[in-house]
Amino acid sequence: MGPLPRTLELFYDVLSPYSWLAFEVLCRYKNIWNVSLQLRPTLIAGIMKDSGNQPPALLPRKALYMKNDVRLLGQHLQVPIHLPKDFFFVIFEKGSLTAMRFLTVVKLEHPELLEKVSRELWMRVWSRDEDITEPQSILAAAEKAGMSTGRARELLERVSTPQVKNQLKETTDAACRYGAFGLPVTVAHLDDETYMLFGSDRMELLAHLLGEKWLGPVPPAATARL
Amino acid sequence: MGPLPRTLELFYDVLSPYSWLAFEVLCRYKNIWNVSLQLRPTLIAGIMKDSGNQPPALLPRKALYMKNDVRLLGQHLQVPIHLPKDFFFVIFEKGSLTAMRFLTVVKLEHPELLEKVSRELWMRVWSRAAEKAGMSTGRARELLERVSTPQVKNQLKETTDAACRYGAFGLPVTVAHLDDETYMLFGSDRMELLAHLLGEKWLGPVPPAATARL
């Protein structure tokens, strides 16, 4: 048996487009590098509050920059990101609390579906400009990911229970203890050291720290380990 | 003759460690890609003021993060960055006005030395090792005397304004002029994307020198 896989924790929120970019790149590499990817649904609003930071989109020039940056990176990383028509309303008014609580309960009950459900929520809000706050929106995402309607409804009913609320809060606190001031945050656990990397643009550095090869943001599937 | 080189403008300030990282990567690639690298000394304090942004180091968690990030990137990009002990003092109290005015006049009078002098200044601020940039002490003194002249002050202000018009809220900013489009990229971490936009190959942050065009 070869060396043990190194754990990578990805703290993410579906409200964050850069989280989606990091998520897709890491999902591609989890079958190429000797790593174990742990997805950790987190609330970006909680990170902002705890760190004293502000969403970058509040600064006009950053908002303008982000729109282009997200579009170009989407093309380069081959992730179908398209900005919602009312960008600010989606981020600041609608938010992601229910969605992230839902992903929290999915992780508790059906961890094998967490990747797909997360992706479907991103596809709604950051690709097709669809709602992710209403119950029927979340159910639609869960169904698209392969969950039965009945099961999805059961999980949705649990989003406001103390267990689920607390779990999301704990994950958000964990990210804060790693020093997060935003998302996505990737935490790499190596034998001798733990690294916290912020953003979707530290993946080549991550490869270097892991002693793995960087094959660009869209690595050939043929090199995947089985 | 092949296609014309594409112009890349790099707006930078020696006060910005990420500017140094972007600078070194682009200096490596200027001899590999079909580009013409234009170095543009800029005042980061002016960018902050004009954009309403604040230096990231003012937020405690960002300051903590930057220390590690800059150290790790320095190792990965093979740039000898070491955060000075008085990190905050350097950034907030000392600033870079004279240094950037000096680089402005170097660009006016000795553009062929701009790369080396810029590197020398970064080495002084961000590294324990210092190298000579090859300018005579006498000539350096002459140029230093000109830093407070209107011509030099205005040139630095113009370059800083140009960066702002491209939408800068910080540095480094790389502006790539392609046939059909102009791209403004912020940070030292958009170089692989830049390669993609240029239709060039990304060979990592430390490309083999053997592939350099002569």
From TrEMBL, chain A:
Keywords: Transferase
GO cellular component term of the entry, any: mitochondrion
Domain of life, per lineage: Eukaryota
Catalytic center residues: 16 (nucleophile)
EC number assigned by the record: 2.5.1.18
GO biological process, one term: glutathione metabolic process
Any Pfam family: DSBA
Catalytic activity: RX + glutathione = an S-substituted glutathione + a halide anion + H(+)
A Gene Ontology molecular function term of the record: glutathione peroxidase activity
Residues in DSBA-like thioredoxin domain copies: 7-210
Family: Belongs to the GST superfamily. Kappa family.
PANTHER family named in the record: GLUTATHIONE S-TRANSFERASE KAPPA, GLUTATHIONE S-TRANSFERASE KAPPA 1
This protein's name: Glutathione S-transferase kappa
From TrEMBL, chain B:
Matching CDD domains: DsbA_GSTK
InterPro entries recorded: DSBA-like_thioredoxin_dom, GST_Kappa/NadH, GSTK, HCCAis_GSTk, Thioredoxin-like_sf
A GO BP entry: glutathione metabolic process
Class of this enzyme: transferase
Any one cellular-component term (Gene Ontology): mitochondrion
Every DSBA-like thioredoxin domain range: 7-198
Annotated SUPFAM superfamilies: Thioredoxin-like (SSF52833)
Active site: 16
Keywords carried by this UniProt record: Transferase
Ranges in coiled-coil conformation: none
Pfam families: DSBA
DNA-binding keyword on record: no
Reaction catalyzed: RX + glutathione = an S-substituted glutathione + a halide anion + H(+)
Designated name of the protein: Glutathione S-transferase kappa
Lineage: Eukaryota, Metazoa, Chordata, Craniata, Vertebrata
Gene: GSTK1
